[in-house]
Amino acid sequence: MNLRDSNPTPGPRIWAVGALCRAVADALDARFNPVAVRGEISGFSRASSGHCYFALKDSSGQLRCAMFRRAAGLLDFSPRDGDQVEVRGRLAVYEPRGDLQLVVESLQRAGQGALFEQFLQRKARLEAEGLFDPERKRALPVMPRAVGLVTSLGAAALHDVVTALRRRVPHIPVVLAPAAVQGANAPAELVRALQSLYTLEPAVDVILLVRGGGSIEDLWAFNDEALARTIVQSPVPLICGVGHETDFTIADFCADLRAPTPTAAAELVSAPQAMWLGAIDLLDERLDSALGARLDVLGQRLDQAAARLGRPSGLLARQQLRLAHHSQRLRYALLSRAERLAQVPRAIAADFPLRLERAMAQRRERLERVALRLRLLDPALVLQRGYAWLTDPEGRAIVSAKKLSPGDAVVARLADGSVDLAVVPGKTGTRPTPGA
Hints:
This protein is an alpha/beta fold and 436 residues long. It is built from 12 helices and 13 strands. It has helices at residues 3-6, 17-31, 69-72, 112-128, 156-168, 186-198, 225-232, 250-254, 262-268, 273-310, 312-376, 379-383, and strands at 35-46, 52-58, 61-67, 84-94, 99-109, 147-151, 174-178, 206-211, 238-242, 257-258, 389-391, 409-414, 417-422.
């Protein structure tokens, strides 16, 4: 049945509101989806449910967007108002209000794909060369005498850093080396600014390299390879405070320390003046306490010395007492020694006869042993057993038959006398046969 024909009044078709919204949504889905849109984020908010709501705009239009929790959980950065982004999703009509909206399924910074890939490749190459080595990082000075600052003269970061340093350490001088922080000439200017601080006399103790936040394109100068190598060559610790907490650049990895913001970089090198004044006050109190305690001890010693000097009679009495004590000990020692010496003659007199008799007995015993040994060696004892001792007429002993000749006179000494003999011819040196 044709409703138009059944309508008695000629004119456009009459739609139910919900039906028209669904029809428009179907038409959009068939005509545009899926769709990719580039624009600037405006009015970004994240609900407690995890869904994100914002608008995409440019100079000629604006489009409401909704990004549900599942897609929002895949984001690798925190979107902010003013970010240039590229989104992919589906156009739809929110029927309860009849609003046109883009249901976002993915979101990334505009142009991030190619630049981010280049960032990753450069980061990997420099890391392999050791430019990010943690062992190369240096500790910050506790109390820097001068601070070097590299940033743009027109940057908000300059105001933030100077304000923080002036508030916390107004006594520390700041040396500014201005340089562009965005654009094609920025890397070369940053390198020149750093090198000027490296050769500065007198030298600064720490260097701050800072700029405010922005898109990956805005911060691209800090991903320059020449700048990275210049940062590594810094003769003093260098802090990089570029962008916001979620922004990372090659300069952050090369620096000795990364600060989440420029203000944080200034605070890292500027312990508040009040803290140091408090520490000085504490040391002053400790010094006063220690000095007072020392003075009390010395005062007590002085009082004791004064008391001794004020009454010399007491000291004299003590010395006399000590002298009497030593004199008594000496007298007792002398008497004891004399008594022991007097007992020595009496002990000797009582013990002498016994000791003399014992000594004489030992001497007689030794003499008898010697006499016995002499008797055992007497040749007469040998002669009594039937042996004879042969000598020549002069009394020299004859010990070999070969020395005798026939007719030689021989004296034979026996136990009870001697006999004169003569050698007769025969076989000298042989034993005579029995009966010969």
